[in-house]
Amino acid sequence: MNNPIRPTDEEARQLAQALMAQARFAALGVVDDAGCPLVTRVAFGLCPLGQPVSLVSNLSAHTKALKANPVCSLLVGEPGDRGDPLTHPRLSLQGRACLLDNESEEHTELADHYLRSHPKAKLYIGFADFFFVRFAVEVGFLNGGFGKAFHMLPKDLSQPG
What we know:
Layout: E1 5-6, H1 10-22, E2 25-31, E3 37-43, E4 45-46, E5 52-57, H2 61-68, E6 71-76, E7 90-99, H3 105-117, E8 130-143, E9 149-152, H4 154-157
């Protein structure tokens, strides 16, 4: 059987980067304290360096899971209004979560940046139980539509600077 994974090219890189840049939410997969997978929807953005970030609450099950085990996965890309949902591009990201301290200088800088793309977060960004999590992506899997599968490295996902 032929390998269904295509060589990563510039078109695939641009599609993956666009999916990340346009996403305002993502599906987050974590491993809970019983060792079971847990998938939830979270806000999604990019930090100034182009790494995925989210604003999460200490009250959520996924935050508790990330604190216990930072290994996680994100899925971005939504099906279009028409057609088979499996023909629309999507990007799965695997990596580790880095929880950021609300008192850090990085938090303040990230909050200003994040609010530009998520203005409604202003309502709760200052709450004591909310903080940022930055995702260090180790590998990505791009499904660009039927027959268009690619493995992506972190360098493939970096936004043009």
